[in-house]
Amino acid sequence: MKPWIKRSLIGLFGAGIVLGGLSACGDRHERFQIGGEYESKFAEKMVDRVTEELALNDMQRQKLVLLGDRIRNQRKVLVGTTTDPRAEMQALVSGAEFDRSRAQAIVDEKSNAIRGTSPEVIAAAADFFDGLNAEQQQKLRDHLQKRHRWFGHG
Fold first, then answer.
1. Which of 80, 86, 138, 146 could, after both became Cys, cross-link 26 (CB 3.0–4.6 A)?
2. Other CB atoms within 10 A of residue 94 CB
3. What residue ranges do the domains of the chain occupy?
4. In the predicted model, what is the mean pLDDT of the chain?
5. Per residue in 34-62, pLDDT tens?
6. CA atoms of 75 and 35, how far apart (whole Å)
7. Which is nearest to 132 in space by CA: 55, 37, 23, 33?
């Protein structure tokens, strides 16, 4: 696998994990609730921005929307049925000792959720990228490279 493809896929999964982790930590504000109005508006805005930046046609836009749906679905699965993530985290430290077995169970649950939905996310990411023309692919690479340097690497 070419290094830039590998980095792009790792970046996509990293974003999914970060989004899932943030939502799992339990922000109490409505704007961050999964499936909320804020999430829908944000997703629409991002699709519009990418569509404009890469000059996507209708088919490419549909693939981008599908990719976004798959990532959001992965995020929902990652969060799971936890209604109060903060309380779940507090329960780990509520006793005299850290609840290692419960912490490991949480990690296992989240890892299995990622493993279960990753094939769909990978397929959608590949379909989107492979559907871009060479110029669009290069624009995407350039954007990822700029973002990569923004974090102090490269």
1. 86
2. 10
3. 12-138
4. 78
5. 556 777 788 888 888 888 888 999 999 99
6. 10
7. 55
DSSP reduced 3-state for 97 = coil
Helix axes 37-54, 58-79, angle to 10 degrees: 140
pTM for the whole structure: 0.66
| One-letter amino acid of 138 | Q
**Cβ contacts of 140 within 8 Å, gap of 6 or more:** 8, 54, 129, 132
Report helix, strand or coil for 154.
Answer: coil
Please give the structure tokens belonging to residue 119: 């094939």
CA distances from 92 to 28, 89, 98 (A): 20, 5, 6
What is the number of other CB atoms lying within 10 angstroms of the CB of residue 148?
15
Q: At residue 113, what are phi and psi to the nearest 5 degrees?
A: -65, -45
pLDDT at 27: 47
